[in-house]
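Support case: user asked for a sample of complex input and structure output to validate their parser. Sending the pair below.
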Amino acid sequence: MANKTIAFIGTGNMSYAIIGGMIKNGFAPQSIIATNRNAEKLAKAHADFGVLTEQDNLKAVQQADVIVLSVKPQMMAELCQTFVDAGLDISDKLFVSVAAGITVKRLREMLAQDVKLVRCMPNTPSLLGRGVSGLFAADISEEEKAYIEQVFSSTGIAIWLDEESQINDVIAVTGSSPAYFFLFMEAIEEKAVALGFSPEQARALVQQTALGAAEMALSQQDISIAQLRANVTSKGGTTHAAVEHLKANQLPQTVADAMDACIARAQEMEQQI
Ligand SMILES: NC(=O)C1=CN([C@@H]2O[C@H](COP(=O)(O)OP(=O)(O)OC[C@H]3O[C@@H](n4cnc5c(N)ncnc54)[C@H](OP(=O)(O)O)[C@@H]3O)[C@@H](O)[C@H]2O)C=CC1
Ligand SMILES: O=C(O)[C@@H]1CCC=N1
């Protein structure tokens, strides 16, 4: 399947990130079609990555072997209905849905047939080849599985899940979590400005520290993350004062509760969409 054509239907934040990761890791731009109803977004994808672009989703679906459905979940039914109404032969196409909160069963209802399908939960660091994607396969061949793995490994780490319900856990752990880290960074940045650093200095200080912390974890796999934190925390010192304050205010429990809220919302969407 190495020579397959892959079409991204709805080239917004997530498709842009996946395409960027694929290009960075050697996929041929001519094997990738990006669609969007917004011509400006397509022009940017073409300018940045050299991929083919198409405003007509139906043409893209016809030309591609693999179709990545990447519109907002609430828009998915309407999009799929256009394929059904056009009477497209999609029986041999491999579909990949990156949407949160839409099950295989529901996607197949939307497409009006039991298509070959992968549910994928990626995240936006895919753009830099630093992504994580959880994958759940429904009725695909080993060759198709290998192709999908090649695509999503090119954007970072890809793991296959045994149960579809684990997709919702992946949303909480990696799909949504870049936003948790950004929120933490925003909070430090805002306080740095309040302490008198310029906005430019505050941004530079917080991003360098976040990167440094992540790289320390990445490069020292034999040291637990808890130990890395302990290494910064001198007994009776400043970090201890800050960390104890965060713990007293239930930061770990708050994060766990937030992740439960994320999963609950995905489950609720599965009932609504
Ligand atoms: N963003 C993230 O971090 C992650 C997102 N996802 C999933 O990815 C999917 C896309 O999310 P995201 O990229 O953030 O959303 P975006 O809104 O950024 O991207 C979707 C794009 O699709 C376009 N679009 C909508 N309907 C159509 C259509 N019928 N034909 C062509 N283009 C269309 C939208 O245009 P317009 O702007 O005009 O609406 C938009 O540009 C969602 O289902 C989400 O659950 C999964 C993991 C992480
Ligand atoms: O917020 C959302 O619903 C999507 C799914 C994971 C990240 N963004």
